[in-house]
């Protein structure tokens, strides 16, 4: 297996106790990284520690926070960064789907705002709070877990699609803002790379709940596993991908490249 250069890395995974975030936390730990896991519920953390993360407990630090609360998020990032001895990589996987299936007239302003608050504003805040630690790393990175909904649309996903489109542009903006030539002291570090992974439907509890299915057997279309996405996150975080910055990587089996022209 190729060396991704992640042994001993200090990684924070926001939303790391379920779904794609959990797969990322496990994958980083398997690579020999030390991992801080933030989740909005103590119950999800306990389930993860008793289940998929059980073999890696010695490499883990955990915390509970509602990412909508910026002060609490800042305190949680600071606490886990201290427990890990700093940060080299941040993965933001926390997200909500909102009023899934609602049409234009049914989506509420409060529901729309909440999706943007969690999927966009909190993602930005997590990076803000992590930046002082990342700037002290020799090869820091941020990776957002986005969605192909940032590029294509489907009925009933208005707020979710808007939020994931915003995350694509946030990736570009932060990649530019945090590049080495814009750091106050370029000699202090190489800049912070910022990328995102944008999968199509992924087999997670949130996707099953949103689509009202028990599993994706016989779905009639390809479905990402959480591990598929985690491998892409590992690559983008790895110093082996040091030239990759500002990229929103589609993981959709090529579907977005297909023309609808009937020929």
Automatic annotation (TrEMBL):
Q: Which CDD domains match?
A: SDR_c
What does the similarity note say?
Belongs to the short-chain dehydrogenases/reductases (SDR) family.
Keywords tagged on the record:
Oxidoreductase
Instruction: Give the EC number.
Output: 1.1.1.-
Keyword Electron transport annotated: no
Give the top-level enzyme category.
Answer: oxidoreductase
- Name by which UniProt lists this protein: SDR family NAD(P)-dependent oxidoreductase
UniProt-listed Pfam families? adh_short_C2
Q: Which Gene3D superfamilies does this entry report, sorted A to Z?
A: NAD(P)-binding Rossmann-like Domain
Q: GO molecular-function annotation terms?
A: oxidoreductase activity
Q: Note whether Magnesium occurs among the keywords.
A: no
